[in-house]
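Could you please consider the sequence and fold appended to this message?
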Amino acid sequence: MDLTLIIIIAIIVVVVVAVVGLYNGLVTRRNRIDEAFAQIEVQLKRRHDLIPNLINAVKGYMGFEQSVLTKVTEARANAVAAGAQGPHDQAQAENMLTGALRSLFAVVENYPDLKANQNVMQLQEELTTTENQISFSRQHYNATVLDYNNTIQTIPSVLIAGPLGFTKREFFDAEPEAAQVPNVDLSLG
């Protein structure tokens, strides 16, 4: 064999191995995003499942505060429906739900008997824990998206990312005030 032919074959092999490595790295990063988003969805489902129990627990005490309960119920329904619309729309709907929950907890403060209710206190604790888990899941998802977006936009990956269908992903953004867990003190006193 001619030395030139061996060099050409070696170059082709190196290029193919590099392209396969880049492609596999992009697939791995894309799959990590999907897994991270699935973790957000698990936490959001838990949150959505807790809300009807919370509303039922406070409904008897807050009969004349029906508008607050209606806002929370509608915000929850919108958040559940937004799940299929992508991270941006889902984040907006979840931010609206967070605002509605804040309103509910602010009203709860006006009801001493309700603040003392063990069921309400337990649901509030579960909701606070879930909100923390959502925040951590969102941070993980956004870090994974950042890594992926940086990879597909930098050389050498940018040379194969676009032609092979790897596109930029959206962050799961929270409004600054939604990033804080609702702080509610349901203790006696």
Residues 31 and 37 are 10 Å apart (CA to CA).
